[in-house]
Amino acid sequence: MSRYDVLIAGGGNAALCAAIAATKGGASVCIIEAAPKDWRGGNTRHTRNCRIAHNESNGILTGPYPVDEFWDDLQRVTKGHTDEELALLTLEKSAELWDFLSDNGVHFQPSLGGTLSLGRTNAFFLGGGRSMLNALYITAEDMGVTIHYDTCISALEIENDFFTAAEATHNWQTDTPQKDRIEARSFVAAAGGFEANIEWLKEAWGPAAENFLIRGTPYNTGGVLRLLLDAGVQRVGEPDQCHAVAVDGRAPKFDGGIVTRLDCVPFGIVLNAQGQRFYDEGEDFWPKRYAIWGRLVAAQPEQIGHVLIDAKSFDLFMPSVFPPEKADTLEDLAAKIGLDPATTRASVNAFNAACIPGDFDHTIHDECHTVGLDPPKSHWARPLDTPPYYAYTLRPGITFTYMGVRVNRDARMVMTDGKASPNLFAAGEIMAGNILGQGYLAGIGMTIGSVFGRIAGEQAAKAVQN
Ligand SMILES: Cc1cc2nc3c(=O)[nH]c(=O)nc-3n(C[C@H](O)[C@H](O)[C@H](O)COP(=O)(O)OP(=O)(O)OC[C@H]3O[C@@H](n4cnc5c(N)ncnc54)[C@H](O)[C@@H]3O)c2cc1C
Asked: Which residues line ligand 1 (CB under 6 A)?
């Protein structure tokens, strides 16, 4: 048995920000991370940037990004499905993150070129999320935070909305797990969403979830979320709301990260398992549309899509991590990817015949579109007629789920009776649904985790003094 002022479940950005803030507030802090040390840091390891409000350029962030504009962007993507008070708090406090993260060892770099142009709005971590995390871990260790790896929070003692202790299972993935009771005066849940729990995803998505690929850590299985909901914490968000993109179908089941992304969709056509097109591939620029393709593919038979392009387009997008299938005829290509050659040929012929000749320019909404085709292709429509032909397989890639625990502006969990708990706090993915009822804005996952991590840590330390 051990005892701390503040016990934190999770080892990603939200947990580290909370740990640092709580320690600064004078508390003794213990972090429980389910992953082994080499795999610490959950989905945060995969991140590249954080969206930050600021009133002027600082040399790396290229121009102003006021809170009002951030708010407009958030409202647009969530279509109003956000808690206005908490969202505005997040955006306002995001302005402090550059200094907070820098002071705790994180370095930033100018935005790299590529498909996302976020140099004005988003601060990119030098060395990526892993390096950012390493900096926060070093800071936390230097401050005296106790960290247990390979240890999972397996039970919580909560009575009358008040936390007293947690059961932590050390070496939980081995044949010799050891259970430990850790008492603390405050508890911060920063243990991520439930995206790695396929059974839980199936409750929302049905059997289709078996075919989902999880882009991040296998450790975010929602165990802590389940314990909290069972203990009477109010749920926020819908179970099927999540950030999902279409990724390379050959990506690993977990932890494929950002390299499995495919940017070729606007340059070709996408067929489902029955060889049929199902959505406008040229609706808008890819950075504006890539986040809808996860759900689109999830809705198709077998949750699979196949992007077909020809030699004209091969050099126009970021190279894929896995090489595409390649063939000199469309029929051979179809056979290689398991599609019916005759149906594939018919779909391509119909598309080719509908393409209007025009000046192709993938840097603008060009005039190359289809006529009389359902669904249409609105831009960048050119006949697939130049061998060799290439195919990439798409699968839904789940980034993170939004359903979580309701919190107030102190990051305190709100119970089902509407009262705020005196000493239960939450930060990061596990409460992101308060801000993200639906939709996503690049870089806001880290904003939510950092802002609420800091608040949770500060308030958890204060609660200890009461
Ligand atoms: C491929 C990819 C790229 C992304 N890129 C970006 C980006 O550039 N910018 C951005 O803002 N967001 C990005 N995101 C989203 C971002 O990763 C998350 O919003 C953010 O990292 C969440 O931080 P967190 O601390 O809440 O969760 P995590 O970093 O996932 O940490 C959760 C932690 O909880 C631990 N845990 C789980 N269950 C238990 C348990 N029972 N006991 C103990 N520990 C437990 C896990 O091991 C993990 O360490 C990306 C996500 C992915 C998958």
From this structure: 9-15, 32-35, 41-44, 46-50, 152-153, 190-192, 215-217, 219-220, 223-224, 257-258, 399-400, 428-429, 443-446, 449
Say how far apart CA 437 and CA 235 lie, in whole Å: 12
Atom index in ligand 1 nearest the CA of residue 221 equals 38
From 8, 38, 44, 226, give the residue whose CB has the most ligand 1 atoms within 8 Å, as the site to mutate: 44
Which residue, 398, 403, 432, is CA-closest to 294?
398
Please give the distance, rounded to the nearest whole angstrom, from the Cα atom of residue 343 to the centre of ligand 1.
42
Under 8 Å between Cβ of 105 and 135: yes
Q: Which atom of ligand 1 is nearest to the CA of 219?
A: 47
* Cα 360 to Cα 175: distance, rounded to the nearest angstrom: 60
Question: What does R_g of the chain's alpha carbons equal in angstroms?
Answer: 23
Using CB atoms within 10 Å of the CB of residue 198, give its burial: 0 to 12 exposed, 13 to 18 middle, 19+ buried.
middle
Which residue's CA is the nearest one to ligand 1's atom 33?
A: 10
- Crossing angle between the packed helical segments 13-24 and 128-142, to the nearest 10 degrees: 30
Average pLDDT, the chain: 96
Hey, what domains does the chain have and what are their CATH numbers? 2-239+402-465 (3.50.50.60), 245-397 (3.90.700.10)
Could you report the per-residue pLDDT of 259-277, keeping only the tens digit for each? 999 999 999 999 999 999 9
The pLDDT tens digits of the residues spanning 340-391 come to 999 999 999 999 999 999 999 999 999 999 999 999 999 999 999 999 999 9
Instruction: Calculate how far, in angstroms, residue 358's C-alpha sits from the geometric centre of ligand 1.
Output: 45
Residue 189 CA to ligand 1 centre (angstroms)? 12
